[in-house]
Amino acid sequence: MTSEPQAASGERRASPAIDPRVGIGHVHLKVSDLDRALDFYVAVLGFELQQRFGPQAAFVSAGGYHHHIGLNTWQSAGGAPPPPGRTGLFHLAILYPDRATLADAVRRVLAAGVALEGASDHGVSEAIYLRDPDDNGVELYRDRPREEWPRPRDGEDGIAMFTAPLDLHSLLAETS
């Protein structure tokens, strides 16, 4: 598979595809209040605090990794979220290993009184959308096995993602 970046003239030029072993390592978020952000990411979502630098920064992870999420107040202490209509982070996505683990995360979020913005079945995944205390979008999701991903009907390669409502009651039943 090749991608075709646009040249300055508007025409596309081919380039080699990125190595398939490449992954996204971590996200680093500007927050207005580090303790409030840690209450959400550690106390509600269950990430482990790996390191903290006073009131300015902290690094959290799952499973003892050095960090999946960095939180800092270096340029944002006491700040407000960016207004709508601006570029920036749409959401960070947290991948859960299976449906039961995703259901447990959603149960904890609801028990903490965090409002959900949406719940979608994308064919390839099931996703819950919410906001952290600094109004950053957060997606909690689990992937379906690749062999279950929807495919185009016309025989073309690729996937046929869609967005349909996710049955939250069915998901939450995984935790009972």
Quick structural summary:
The chain has helices at residues 34-44, 99-111, 168-172, and strands at residues 27-30, 48-53, 57-61, 69-72, 92-96, 116-121, 125-131, 137-143, 164-165. By secondary structure, it is an alpha+beta fold.
Q: What can you see in these coordinates?
A:
The protein is an alpha+beta fold. The chain folds into two domains: 26-79, 2,3-Dihydroxybiphenyl 1,2-Dioxygenase, domain 1 (Roll); 89-176, 2,3-Dihydroxybiphenyl 1,2-Dioxygenase, domain 1, CATH 3.10.180.10. It has helices at residues 34-44, 99-111, 168-172, and strands spanning 27-30, 48-53, 57-61, 69-72, 92-96, 116-121, 125-131, 137-143, 164-165. The protein has a five-stranded mixed β-sheet, covered by helices on one side. Strand 6 and strand 7 (125-131) form a beta hairpin. The chain is globular, with a radius of gyration of 19 Å. The mean pLDDT is 92.
